[in-house]
Specification:
The complex is a heterodimer of chains A (189) and B (349).
Chain A lengths: L2 H10 L4 H11 L6 H18 L5 H20 L4 H8 L1 H8 L7 H13 L3 H12 L4 H8 L3 H21 L1 H6 L2 H9 L3
Helix pairs in contact in A: 2-3, 3-4, 7-10, 8-10, 9-10
Chain B lengths: L2 H16 L6 H12 L2 H16 L3 H4 L18 H4 L5 H6 L19 H22 L2 E3 L6 E4 L5 E4 L4 E6 L4 E7 L1 E5 L8 E5 L2 E5 L3 E7 L2 E8 L1 E8 L2 E9 L2 E5 L4 E5 L2 H7 L6 E8 H11 L3 E4 L2 H4 L2 E7 L3 H11 L2 E5 L3 E6 L1
Parallel strand pairs in B: 5-7, 16-19
Antiparallel strand pairs in B: 1-4, 2-3, 3-6, 4-5, 6-9, 7-8, 8-11, 9-10, 10-13, 11-12, 13-14, 15-17, 18-19
Chain lengths: 189, 349
C-alpha cells in the first residue's frame, strides 16, 4: 500500500466526514443508506487520488458526492422533487460547509468527549486506559484482570463505535442545537 | 451485516492488533495485502486509523483527572477544560445539572481529586449564565433569523423568523409572552413552577415537555413533540381550559374553536424543521408554500393567478434560499416567474 496516500487521505479527506454525512443526510431520502454512500464516495476519491492528488481535496470530495447522487438518481430514473430542489441548492450548501472548519479544536474536543461517553462501559474503560493513561494493551489487561486478546477486541470495537458517533454527531453541535437534541433524547418530563 | 460494516469490523481488528505487543512482520505483510486487495479496505482502514489517532487527544481532556480514575458519563463534557475559557460557557452550564451526585467509579485505589475542580468551574458557569439571563428578558429575531435562548431553569427556547418574546420567571411561574411569530420550547421539568406561554389571550401550559407555539393574529398553532400541554382561554382574570394536547398533537386555537389533529412524531418533527433552517412541503398548495417562504425573506413572492395557487408541490428547502425554490418552479412547473426589484411575481405559463 502507498503509505503516503493513506496519510493524505487521513489528513485531507476524513476530517470532512461530519460535513459530508450531514450533506448526504439532507440530500438522500433514506438515512440508512448514507453510510454506504459515504463509503462509495471515499472509494472514488481514494482511487482518483491514487492516480493524481486533487489540488483542492475538499472541493473534490464534495464534487464527487454530488456526482454520485446525480448518478444514483439517473440510474433509478426517479427524479424526486425533493432531491432535485436540494441538488440545485447543493453549491450553496457546500459553501455553508466551510465555516465549521474554523470552529476550532475546542469544539472538536468536545465532540470527541461526547463520542467517548457514548461508548459502552467496557470499551470506555479500555480506551481510557490505553489512550489517556497511555498503558500498553498488556498493562490494561493486567489492570482490569482480563486477557490481552479481550483488550484488543474491545479496542477494535471501541474505535469503530467512536468513529460512528464522532463523525456523525457533528450535526447538532455545529448548528449549536446539540445540547437541545441530547436533552430531548434523555426523555425527561 | 452489510459488506461495509463487515469491512469496517475487519479494519478495526487490524488497528487493534497492530497496537498490541504481539505484532510481527508476518502480520504486517498480511495487513499490507489486505489493504492492497481493495480500495474499500484501504478507505475503511484510513478512516478508522484517523479515529485511532484522534483518540489520543482524549489525553487533553483527561488532563485534570488523576491516574486510575475513570470519569463518569456526562462528566467529560463538563470538564474544566471546556468551561474555563470557553465563550459558550453558559451553554456548557446547562450540563452542570448533569453533574454526578454519586461518586465516580474508581479503577484503582486512588481517590478522585477532580470533582472539586469540576464543581468550582460549574459555579463559574452558573454565574455567567445567570448574569446573561437577568440582563435580558426580551428577545427578537429579524426576518429570516432564528435564535436560541437558554433559560435559568434549564429550559431552552428556539425563536423562529420575525418573532418577539418576553420572559417573566418568578418563584411560582415561568412565563413567556409570545408577542409575535413562533417559538419552540424544550421545558425542563419543575412541578412547582408551571411553564406558561401567554399568546393572543390564551395560555399554553406545560410541565416538562417540548412544544412550539405560533401566533397568527388572534389564532395560535401549537405543536407538541413530547409530554403534554394544556391550552387555556385567558380573558380578564378568568382561565378556561380549551384543550389538552399530547405528543404528536397539532392544534389551532381561535376564539371560537380548537381543532386538533394527531400526527406521527416524524411528521411533527418535520413541521418543526425550521429549527434547523429548513421548511418542508408535502403536497402543499403553492399559495401556502409561498406564504411560508414570505415569512423568512424580505423579498416577497406574489401569486397573481389563481390557477397557479392550487399547484401542489413537495420538497425540503432552506428557508432563506428563495433562489432554489424559484428555480425549481421555473424548471418543473407551468409557472412564469417575473423577478422585479423587491417582488417576485408568479403567473400561469
Amino acid at each position: 500500500m502507498d503509505e503516503t496516500l493513506q496519510q493524505w487521505f487521513i489528513r485531507e479527506i476524513v476530517p470532512h466526514e461530519p460535513a459530508l454525512v450531514r450533506l448526504m443526510s439532507r440530500l438522500w431520502p433514506d438515512r440508512h443508506e448514507v453510510a454506504d454512500l459515504r463509503q462509495e464516495i471515499y472509494i472514488r476519491v481514494y482511487e482518483a487520488a491514487a492516480r493524481s492528488r486533487p489540488t483542492n481535496p475538499k472541493s473534490f470530495l464534495f464534487a464527487t458526492a454530488r456526482h454520485l447522487v446525480v448518478d444514483r438518481v439517473r440510474r433509478n430514473k426517479v427524479v424526486s422533487v425533493e432531491l432535485k430542489g436540494d441538488l440545485e441548492g447543493l453549491n450553496l450548501l457546500i459553501d455553508e460547509v466551510s465555516p465549521e472548519q474554523n470552529v476550532g479544536a475546542r469544539q472538536e474536543l468536545r465532540r470527541l468527549a461526547g463520542a467517548f461517553e457514548l461508548l459502552p462501559a467496557q470499551c470506555r474503560d479500555v480506551m481510557w486506559l490505553r489512550k489517556v493513561e497511555n498503558l500498553s494493551q498488556k498493562e490494561v489487561a493486567l489492570r482490569l484482570g482480563m486477557k490481552e486478546k479481550a483488550v484488543e477486541k474491545r479496542l477494535a470495537r471501541g474505535v469503530r463505535l467512536l468513529a460512528e458517533s464522532f463523525y456523525a454527531v457533528a450535526d447538532g453541535d455545529a448548528r449549536g442545537t446539540g445540547a437541545l437534541v441530547r436533552k430531548e433524547e434523555s426523555g425527561h418530563g | 451485516m452489510g459488506e461495509r460494516e463487515c469491512i469496517e469490523e475487519q479494519a478495526a481488528e487490524w488497528i487493534a492488533r497492530r497496537d498490541s505487543a504481539h505484532w510481527n512482520d508476518a502480520q504486517e505483510t498480511q495487513l499490507k495485502q489486505w489493504l492492497e486487495s481493495s480500495s474499500a479496505h484501504a478507505v475503511a482502514f484510513a478512516r478508522l486509523q484517523a479515529m485511532w489517532q484522534q483518540a489520543n487527544r482524549l489525553r487533553a481532556i483527561g488532563a485534570g483527572v488523576p491516574p486510575g480514575v475513570m470519569p463518569r458519563p456526562g462528566e467529560l463534557r463538563s470538564s474544566p477544560y471546556f468551561d474555563a475559557t470557553n465563550p459558550d460557557a453558559p451553554n456548557v452550564g446547562r450540563g452542570s445539572s448533569g453533574m454526578p451526585a454519586s461518586p465516580r467509579r474508581r479503577l484503582a485505589g486512588r481517590a478522585a481529586g477532580w470533582s472539586a475542580v469540576a464543581a468550582a468551574s460549574c459555579a463559574v458557569a452558573a454565574l455567567v449564565w445567570q448574569q446573561g439571563l437577568f440582563a435580558r428578558t426580551h428577545y427578537v429575531t429579524p426576518v429570516g433569523g432564528t435564535a436560541e435562548v437558554s433559560l435559568p431553569d434549564g429550559s431552552a427556547v428556539i425563536l423562529n423568523t420575525d418573532s418577539d418574546i418576553r420572559l417573566a420567571v418568578s418563584a411560582t411561574e415561568r412565563r413567556i409572552d409570545l408577542r409575535q411569530g413562533e417559538a419552540f420550547f424544550n421545558v425542563a421539568p419543575d412541578s412547582t413552577r408551571p411553564f406558561v406561554v401567554t399568546v393572543a389571550g390564551k395560555r399554553v401550559v406545560a410541565v416538562g415537555t417540548a412544544f412550539s407555539v405560533r401566533r397568527h393574529g388572534t389564532e395560535i398553532d401549537v405543536v407538541v413533540t413530547s409530554g403534554a400541554v394544556r391550552v387555556e382561554q385567558a380573558s380578564g382574570g378568568r382561565r378556561e381550559p380549551l384543550a389538552q394536547l399530547k405528543a404528536g398533537s397539532v392544534a389551532r386555537a381561535g376564539d371560537a374553536a380548537v381543532t386538533v389533529q394527531q400526527r406521527s412524531l416524524p411528521e411533527v418533527e418535520e413541521l418543526l424543521s425550521w429549527r434547523s433552517g429548513f421548511i418542508v412541503f408535502r403536497e402543499t398548495r403553492l399559495a401556502d408554500a409561498v406564504t411560508e417562504f414570505n415569512r423568512y425573506n424580505g423579498r416577497r413572492i406574489y401569486i397573481e393567478d389563481p390557477a397557479v395557487a392550487d399547484i401542489r408541490i413537495g420538497g425540503k428547502f432552506r428557508a432563506t434560499n428563495i433562489e432554489s425554490f424559484i428555480g425549481l418552479l421555473r424548471e418543473g412547473f407551468p409557472v412564469r416567474v417575473q423577478v422585479l426589484d423587491e417582488r417576485i411575481v408568479l403567473t400561469a405559463r
